[in-house]
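$ fold --in a.seq
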Amino acid sequence: MAETAKSEMSLRDFFGPQGLLARCHPQYEFRPGQLEMAEGVERAFHEKRHLAVEAGTGTGKTLAYLIPALRSGRRVIISTGTKNLQEQLFFKDIPFLQKHLNGEIRACYMKGRSNFLCRQKLYDLENQPVLKGLEELDHYARIRDWEKQTETGDRAELTDLPEPVPLWPRLDARRDTCTGQKCPQFERCFITGMHRRAAESELVIVNHHLFFADLAVRADDFASILPEYTAVIFDEAHELEDVASQYFGTRVSNYRLEELVRDTENILSLKGLAERRLARLLRQLRTQAEGFFELFPAEEGRFAFDNREQFLERAGEGYQALLEKLRSLEVALASLREKPEEIFNLIRRASELRQELKFLLEGQDRAFVFWFERRGRGVFLQATPINVAQILRERLFERYDTIVLTSATLAVGGRFDYLKQRLGFRTAEEKVLAPHFDYERQALLYISEHLPDIRTPAFIAEAADEISRLLEASRGRAFVLFTSISQMQEIFRRVAQRVSFPLLLQGTAPRTALLDRFRQTPSAVLFATASFWQGVDVQGPQLSSVIIDRLPFAVPTDPVVRARIQALTEDGHNAFAEYQTPEAIIALKQGFGRLIRARSDRGLLAILDNRILRKQYGRLFLESLPPYRVTSDLSEVRRFLDEG
C-alpha cells in the first residue's frame, strides 16, 4: 500500500488548499465537498457502517473515495456503472495516486469473462475446417499472433480488429464453455491470471454487472468471481436496482438455445466425437427451438406474460417437445463413452436451460413478474424480482459491514428514503453535498408554461415549434431528449423542416459514432432517448442546451413497472408518490446533468412539460434539482444565451 496514504497525514493534508493534491494535480481547485465526502467515507470504513452520499458533478468524488479506501487497510471492491468510469479509475486516477503517494498501489481491473481470450479454444481451432472464408482466417491469424504477446488476453487490446468479430464468441472465455482447473491451460489462463491479481489487490475495480453476477452465485458458494472482501463502494449507485434485478432473475432466449446447439456441434467436431445420431438430435433441437420462439408475437417491445396458462394450452405441444429434446441431449451426451470435461459442461447447460424454461412457463412464485421481450431477431423470456430490497438487505447490506453508495443523483427532496426503500438498507450515514458549480450563474431552467398538456394531440406540433425557437436561441448546440422513440421521430421530422442546424437522430448510427459526430460538428443538435440521459460527457460550448420533452415517468404498462406499482398498492402504499415520482425525479436529474460538467460551462435547461408547475408533485421535482434560476419567458432565455 502507498506509504503516504496510510500515514498519519490527515485528509485535509490531501485535499486542503495547500495539500498534496494542490501541489501535484494540474487541474486542482479546492472543493469543500470533496473533503467532506472523503471524511465521511473514511468514517464509514473506521466505524464499519454504511454511507449514502450524493455528490454532484465537479465534486471530485473518485479521489474522495479512493484515498480513504487505500487508507482503510482493507480489500475494497469499487463497482462502477460505466466502462468509461472503470477505465478512468484504473488507467488515470490510480496511476496518478501511485505516482504521488510514494508507494505501490495494488489494484486490479476485472471485466466479464467474454472480454478475454480462451487459449485452449484458440489452440483447438488451429487448422480446423470450422474456420471459413479468408476474412475469418485472417482474424484468427491476428488473434493467434496477439495471444503470444498479450499479458492480459483482454479483447480491448485488439484495436485493429473490427467490432464485432463473429469469430470472437467462439474464442472467448465465457463460463458456459470453461472447464476450469481441468483445462490444460488453467495455469496460463487469462481468467486465472485476473483472479490471482485480484486476490493480491487492495482495490478491485469492477462494474455493476460483474458485481451482481458474482453476488448472485456467491450465495450458493459456487463459482464466485471476486475475491473475498468486507467493503464495497458503488459509484453511480442510482443504477443498482435495475442491474440487481437482472442477476437475481431468470432469462432464457432463442440465442441461448442456438448457442448451446452451436457449441455442442463445435465441441463434438473438435473432440472427434461427432455422431450421426447426435447431429440429427441437434438439428431437431434447433428446429424445435425456432418453432417455439416463433409462437411469440412479432411486435417488438416488452410485454407481460400473464397469459402463460392460455399460451401453454395453445403451444403446450411445442413446449413439451422442446423440453424433451433438451432432456434427450443430456442423455445422449451422458452416454458417450469418452467424455472430456467440455461434455459435462454441455450436459449442465442443457439441464439448466430445461429447468429455467419450466420455471418461466410454469413457475408460480409471486415474488417474480413474468414477461417477454422481442428485440430484433431475439426473443427473451424473463422472470424479474418485483422487489430486490430484501435480497440486497440479506446478501449485501447485512453481510458486509461497509457499503458506500454515491452518485450525482441519489436523493429526492434532499432525502434518501426512496433509495433505502428500493435497495433495502435501513441505517446509513446520509450526506447531500453542496453543489460545486454556481448553478444560478451557469444555468437557466426554462419551463414552457404556455404549451398544451403533453397528453393531448396538440402537444407534438406545438412542442416542435417550441424546440425550433429554443434551437434558434441557442444556435443549435443542443441535446433534445425524449421518453418515447415514436415521439422523438415525429418531432425530429417536424423540426428538420424548420431549422438549418445539423440534426442527428438516435438509431441512425451507433451511439459512440453519434456522440463523436456531435462533438465535431459545429451547431449540431442530437435527438435521443433514454440511453443518452446518463453517462454522456460533452464539455464546453458545443453543448449549450438540454431540452427535455416531458417528465420522465416510467411507462406504467411496462411489465416490471406495472408489477411494482401493483405490489406497492396491494401493500397499502401510494405507488405514484413512493415509486413513480422519485424514479422520474432521479431520471430528470440525470438528463439535466449532461449540461454543466465544468465551471466554465454555461447553458440552458428546458422542459416542455408544464405539469412541473401545475401539479402538486412538481414542487418535489423542483426541490430536488440544483438551485437553477427558473423562467418561463423566452426573451429571458435569449438574453441569457446571448450573454454566453
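$ fold --in b.seq
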Amino acid sequence: MKALILAAGFGTRLFPYSAHTPKPLFPIGGRPLLDILIRGLEQAGCGAVMVNTHHLNQKIESFLARQSYSISVDTSYEPEILGTGGAIKNAADFWDEDPFIVVNSDIVTNIDFKKLYKFHMGHPYPATMVLCNNDLFNTVSVSREGFITGFRNDDRPVEKYDGLLTFTGIQVLDPKVLDLIPADCFSSSIDAYQKLMASGDKIKAFMPGDFFWQDIGTPDRYRRINLEKLTDRAFGKTRPPADFSTEPAQTTIKLKGDGSDRNWYRITRADHSVILADHGLRLQKAKAEVDSFIDIGNHLLHRGLPVPEILEFDRFSGLVLIEDLGDIHLQAMVNSMPDKQKADRLYESIIDILVKLSVQGAKGFNSKWTYQSSRYDRHLILEKECRYFTDAFLNGYLKLATDFNHLKEDFSKLADKTVLYSCNGFMHRDLQSRNIMIKNGQPFLIDFQGGRTGPIQYDLASLLIDPYVALPLSLQEHLLDYCMRCYRSNISCRAEKFIAGYRYCRITRSLQMLGAFAFLSQVRHKTGFEAYIPGTVRTLAQSLAGAGDTTFPGLSALVPEIQNRLASRPKQTYKKTVKKEIKK
C-alpha cells in the first residue's frame, strides 16, 4: 500500500498565518498535521508515502528530513500547482499495480486507514471516496446503495440528487484511474470521477460510523479543533479517570480582561475548571509573547515559585490552558479591608515570594525566553518607559506637544542611575495586585511573560506604588525596610544601593504606568484605566520630590503642568463589564 498526501496548496483561507507556515505544518495538539497523517498511514501498514509540495516547499522538506519514520517518505515539488488530479498523475512513477490512498493534508481525522484500504479491496469498483455528514460541505450525492451519483457543482438538476454528504479529501484509487487524468496540467480528481461515472463505472462511498473528521481550512475551524484536543488533554490531568465514564457538559465563560490583548476564559466540566489564555494565532515565526508565557511559566514552576501550572499549550495557535486559581486578586482583598495598614502581614508574605522569585528565578534563566528585550537595561528604560510616557501620556493623552529631546537629559540621567544602583536578579516587571491571585489564603503570581533579568527593586516599586490599591506611605516604608532585610540574607547588595535603586525604580515605573494607562484608555478604548492616572501622577510627584528637585529638573517642573491639565479634563463615567456565559 502506498499513499499520496496533497500538501502543495497556498492555504489562502488561512492567510496571513500560512504566509510563514505551510498549512500541512499547522500543529494540532503540538504535532504538525502532516506528521499526524504520516504516522497514521505508517501504523496502518502503508509502505511508502509521497508528499506533493509547492507553497513553502523547503519548510515541508526540512521538516520531513528531521523525522524518523519506519517507512519511505519522499516529496514531489510542483513548480506550478497541478490540483488534486494533476498531483495524482504527476506521481505516476511512484505508483505500482496496487490501489493507493490519496489524502488531503488540511484535515484532522481518526480514520482507520487499514480498515479503509480493506474496504476498497473488498469491492470491484475502481475508486472509494470517504464521506461524512457536515452541513458546511455536503456536496456529494450518494445513493442508498452507497454509490456516488453526482457532485453538487456539476450540471445535474438538484431534484435528482440522493442524500448529500461531504467528501473528506480521503480516497482510494485503482491505478486504472490514472488513465482518466491528463498529464502535465492542472486538473481535479473530481473530473476523473465524472469521467468514470460517464463511462458506466461506479464509485463506492465509505462512511464509517465511528469517524471523526474536520477540515481546518479557516483560522476559526483550525483554532476550534485545536482547543478541543488541548482541552481534553488538560482535563485528563485535572480530573480523576472515573470522571470520564460520562461526557459532562462543558461551559465556557469569558473573563474580564485587563491591559493585554489576550482573551481569558474559564472552561468548566462537572466540578473541574481550567483557564484558557488565548494569545491569538501566530502572525510571524519570530519570538512571540505566548512563547515567553510558556517558557518563563514552566521555568518558575520548576524553580518552586507559586505560579499556575501550564497544563497544555500550542504555540502556533496561541492557546494555553493553565491551572485555575480562582477569582480573588490581591486588589480585591486589600481594597475590602477597612484599614489597609493591616495588610502588612499579607504583603510581607508576598515580599517573601518576591525575594525567592528574584533569586531562584534567576537560576538557570535563559534570556532567549524573553519577549522584545532580553533584560531591563538603559535602552529599555529610555524607549519603553520614558518615550512611552512622552508619546502616549504627555502628547497622546494630555496633548502637551512635548519634545522627547527636551527631557532627554533627565531621562538619560534617570536611566543611568537606575542601572547604576540596580541589584540584579529575575524581575517579573508587572508585579501589581491584579497579577497576584489569592487561593486558599496563599498568593500566586500570574502574567509573568514579561519576566527578564534586571533590578530587583523594580518589582518592589511596582508592588508598593500600585495605584490599584494605593497603600499608605507609612506601610510602603515599612515594607521597603522588610524587603531590604529579607534580601540581605539572600543577595549581596548594600542597603544604600538598594534604597537608591528603589527610589529611581519608583520613577521609571510611574512613567511606564502613565504611558500604559494613557495608551489603553485612548488607543485601546479601555477607559477604566483613566481612573488610576491622577493617583499615579501624585506618586510620580512624590518620587521626584524624594529625589530632589535638582536631580530631574525638567520632569519636576513638568509635574504642575500635568496636574493642571488633568484638573481641566472632563470627568469620566465608567460602565461595568458584564460577563457572558456560553454553553457548549
